[in-house]
Amino acid sequence: MENTIVKVENLSHRYASQWAVRDINFEISSQGVVGLLGSNGAGKSTTMNIICGVLKQSKGEVYINGINLKDNPVEAKRNIGFMPQKLPLYQDFTVEEYLTYCADLRMVEKKQVKKAVQEALERCGVAHFRDRLLRNLSGGYQQRVGIAQAIVHNPKFVVLDEPTNGLDPNQIVEVRNLIKQIAVDRAVLLSTHILTEVQAACREIKMIEEGQMVFSGSIEMFNNYIEPNTIVVTLDSPPLNEVLQQIEGIRSVEQLTPYRFRLGYDGEKKTAQRLANASVSNEWGLMELMIEKSSLDAVFARLSKKQIK
Ligand SMILES: Nc1ncnc2c1ncn2[C@@H]1O[C@H](COP(=O)(O)OP(=O)(O)OP(=O)(O)O)[C@@H](O)[C@H]1O
């Protein structure tokens, strides 16, 4: 991959006797938002904690900007910003005090701190609240400060764990836009279990289930799993499944009840029309014809069950 910022090779991790992550390989390029999807317990946090250098893996290697995280953690971590799900905000600090503290922690050079804090304040739209106590910020603005602390040292790679959790719809849109904007000149890995989140913000998706990567590709490739479309049809006097299957454009027949069928089809309107015409001319007693387009949730469920790999 061109301009790779993160490279994960044969990553495995076990807690006590249980493997949480098994033999994961992926790369992330240097710009844009990548979504890390997975259901509860899938291994997202374990993977993110290892990539951020918070947890040491049992096996495998992680390279950040070409630097091996295990061998050279201090140098590698200069390139990483992390916003955990539970923000480590000190409620009695003002926004500026907090970001100054974070810049120190992130080893920003003393004389650069003021400038770095100013840039993060502006970039995240919180400059006008610089003197406000964190406890007095709304959830959306606290989240902005969380993102500001993750970019204060200008890292090339930022990891955000469920960044829109608990926000109202307006705040979600604002934080999402901010994430897109900070990803213009860096890579962002965003962990979430919300599909609309990845659709709205990500150019690429990685999905982990039971500790293994079950999908890795562009949002378009992911959306392809919505295909093939299906038609649900109810027929009072249905023919044999084979007869339905022979209709041009019909690819599969799944019998739901003696009278109801889910037909995989090529997505062409004409196929649905052909099916309706055949029902009428053969007197199959057409009661219902409904075109289904799998929701992203259905895709998610399908991938989760690893029917598709
Ligand atoms: N410290 C730990 N000790 C033992 N097992 C753990 C530990 N942390 C996680 N696990 C187990 O490892 C597996 C992966 O957990 P992980 O937290 O990485 O999943 P996740 O995808 O982040 O889930 P969630 O969205 O619920 O946080 C789970 O089976 C979990 O129970």
Walk me through what this model shows.
There is one protein chain. 37% of the residues are buried. The mean pLDDT is 89. The protein has 2 domains: 4-224, 3-Layer(aba) Sandwich (Rossmann fold), CATH 3.40.50.300; 230-293, Alpha-Beta Plaits (2-Layer Sandwich). The chain starts with a strand and ends in a 5-residue tail after the last helix. The chain contains 11 helices and 14 strands. It is α/β, with parallel strands linked by helices and 309 residues long. Strand 7, helix 6 (169-182) and strand 8 (187-192) form a beta-alpha-beta unit. Helices cover 33% and strands 29% of the residues. The chain has helices spanning 44-51, 73-77, 95-105, 113-123, 139-151, 169-182, 195-201, 219-224, 241-245, 269-281, 296-304, and strands spanning 4-15, 18-29, 32-37, 59-64, 67-68, 80-83, 157-161, 187-192, 204-209, 212-218, 230-235, 250-255, 260-265, 286-292. Adenosine-5'-triphosphate is lined by residues 15-16, 18, 20, 38, 40-46. Keywords: ATP-binding, Nucleotide-binding, Transport.
* Gyration radius over CA: 25 Å
SS elements, strand count:
14
Instruction: State the helicity in percent bands.
Output: 25-40%
User: What percentage of the residues does DSSP assign to strands (E)?
Assistant: 25-35%
Largest sheet: 6 strands, mixed
Going by CATH, what is the homologous superfamily of the largest domain?
P-loop containing nucleotide triphosphate hydrolases
Please state the structural category: alpha/beta
Uncertain regions spanning at least 5 consecutive residues: none
Number of helices, counting only DSSP H or I runs of 4 residues or more: 11
Read across the widest sheet, the strand sequence of neighbours is: 6-7-8-3-9-10
Order of helices and strands: EEEHEEHEHHHEHEHEEHEHEEHEH
CA distance, first residue to last residue: 21 Å
Round the mean pLDDT to the nearest integer and report it.
89
Family: Belongs to the ABC transporter superfamily.
Keywords: ATP-binding, Nucleotide-binding, Transport
GO molecular function, one term: ATP hydrolysis activity
Protein name: ABC transporter ATP-binding protein
